[in-house]
Every structure is written in structure tokens, then in C-alpha cells.
What does this fold into?
Amino acid sequence: MRITNIKTGVISIPLRTPFKTALRTIDHISSIVVTVETDAGVTGIGEAHPTGPITGESHGSVRGAIHEFMLPKLKGKEIANLEATLNTLDSSMVKNTSAKAAVEMAIFDLFGRLYNIPVYRLLGGYRNKVETDLTISVNSATEMAEDSKIAVARGFRILKLKVGLNSELDIARIKAVRSAVGGCVQLRLDANQGWTAREAIKIMRVIEAEGLDIELLEQPVLAHDLAGLKQVTDNIATPVLADEAVFSALDAEKIIAMHAADYINIKLMKTGGLRGALRICALAEMHNVECFIGCMMESKISITAAAHLACARSIITRCDLDSPALCLTDPVSGGVEIEGPWLKVSEAPGLGIEHIEGVVWD
It folds into this structure.
């Protein structure tokens, strides 16, 4: 089974409500759908969600990377020779991690279809379902409290609160949500690089003194500020999760060596796909550092790939794979089964995705 062509298209999915963070506001998911075609007539499916403020990519750059650099190198490559094929993909160009992730997950999909085995079993097969949190966008304290009650009514037991726009208002937001949902719901905070180290320490000490019971704090400071990240980690009781600071295993190695964070967040759009994510998992396993798996605002296509990874590896102990739950519709047939906060992978070969409605092909 050899690669003959790669096609790209765009899918747009409206959100239930606008998604607001310290970095951006969006009202729909807009992703690049990728299909890798073969001489056997079997097609693999992947997805890239370009997130300029984080990965530096756009729709145009993803398409250009795939068609100008990746496809010419990959034509004729044998799916069965997975290592060599993925080495070719990696060496086709530097960076462009979302574009690489999309093509790579399609190749893994093909490899699983070739050998009639689901991807999660290829990668370790630890379990077949995981529980995700649900993200609550940054808004007024009243709006966030109401959105949190709605999320709990939908069955979600873990909420991730977006903060980082105003430190004084952030404390009021967190208090309002905790009051609204009670003590049985886990709360996580994500500042999306919106605080300084000094602000983060001040805010978290107030939150801890108030007994608001926050499970973890995600990426409070700028991605490159590892010293600031370590300062926060060293000076608060709440565990700290590194996100935008980690693209590769080399990044994770620096953070672990510095003790700059307690947990590492893996996102396929940052790691360049499953193989880069597996490298982080291996490093984390050696140092007994738990991993969290997250996502950009992706459709069920790449969330399926992330769920297969989460189910495969025991070092991944927490999940933030909630973007399909934030959507009004689901145009993807097959793939991961989603029921409230639970994501269950199937025994279908590869990623198990059958069809995608509404793709506008290039």
C-alpha cells in the first residue's frame, strides 16, 4: 500500500457559544481536513487546526506545507514501512506542526486499516475510554457561573475555567463558579499565558486561602518564560501544568529538568502528531511526570486521534478533549464515541472514521 496523493479541504462547524480565552475569541471551528490516498484504494483521514497565536500556522500555510513540501516527498512511500515513511514526513520541512500532525494521523489511520487494528492498540492499548473536562469561556462571573451549571447538567464533572484577562475579575469568576457548582465538581484554571509570575502567585494564594479547591493551573505565564513558570510552581500549592511551553520532547525535558511545572500538556497540533507525543510520553514515564492531553478547537477527526493516544498510554492521566462537545453539530461519522464527558474508542481499524459531511475540497 503506497501513497499516491494527499487532498486537503476545509470544514466549518458552528459552536454552541463563542469560545473566549486570553488569546482569542471564535464562534466556529475551521479546520483543514486531510486525506492520504493509496494505490490500494484505501484512504486515511487527518485534521489540522491552524492556531496562529500558538503554532504560527494559518489555513494557507498548512495547505502550502502539505502540497509543496510533504506530498512530493511522500509519494510512493510504503505505509507498511511506517518508521521510514514518518521519518520522510518529519524531514520534509521544519516546524509546521499542525500540518505534520494531520498527515501523520492519516498515515497511522492507514497503517491500522492495513493490519486491521485500531490505533490505540498499536500504541499500547491501556484502556478504551477516557473522561474529558469541559471548558468554560472567560466571561463575566455571572455568565461563567451559569455556563458552569449548564455543563454540570450535561454530565460533566470536571470544568476548565478560562482566565487571564483581568486578575481581580479572575478571582471573582472562580468564586462565582465554585459557588454555582458546589464542592463535588473539579475545577481547573487555564490562564493561556495571561498572567505574569507575580500576578499568578498573588491570585493563586488568594484562591488557596479561600479554599476554592483548584485541581491545577495551566500555563499561567508566557510560553518562553520558563523561569517565571518555575517561580509560580515553586510558590503555590496548586499543581502547575505546562502547555504552550511544550511542543516537543526537548521542551518537556527542559521543564522536567528545571522542575518548572508539575504536569506536561500534550497536544497533537503542537507535537507534530502521534509520534512526537509518544516521545513526550516516554520521557515523562522515565521521570514519573504525569501527562495531560489537550486540544485546540478541533473537530472530532483529530480528537479521535488524541483519544486513541490517551487510551493507549497510562502516563496520560487527565484529558481536555472537549471541542466536539462545544459544537452545535457533528459532521463526522465514526471515530471516537462521545457520550457526555466520556470518549470511547472503537475496535474499528485505524481511527475508525467513516465519513465527513460538509468538507469544501481544494
The CA atoms of residues 255 and 261 lie 6 Å apart. DSSP finds 13 helices and 17 strands in the chain. The radius of gyration is 20 Å. The first helix runs from residue 52 to 55.
